[in-house]
Inverse folding.
């Protein structure tokens, strides 16, 4: 399962709940503010993961007292998106 984690570091109060609950996805910086492990950081720390540990990330999201963590499941692309054939629902029906 692919999912994205975002942390609004400007709103983080460095309570350490997220990286205590889920040390696989979150860590504290030198000020104790949360960041996503292996993610990109500016004002927001983000990372995309493809593993079965979304429940742990969601538990960390729920543990945040200031709601600065967002965990979003990435939607899988439709297998018909790049298909050269017409979608069956778009074909005209002609009785035989």
């Amino acid at each position: 399962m692919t999912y994205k984690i975002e942390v609004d570091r400007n709103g983080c109060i460095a309570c350490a709940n997220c990286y205590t609950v889920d040390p696989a996805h979150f860590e504290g910086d030198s000020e104790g503010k949360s960041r996503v492990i292996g993610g990109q950081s500016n004002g927001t720390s983000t990372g995309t993961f493809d593993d079965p540990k979304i429940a742990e990330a969601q538990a960390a999201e729920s543990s945040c007292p200031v709601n600065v963590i967002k965990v979003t499941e990435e939607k899988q692309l439709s297998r018909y998106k790049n298909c050269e054939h017409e979608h069956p629902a778009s074909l005209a029906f002609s009785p035989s």
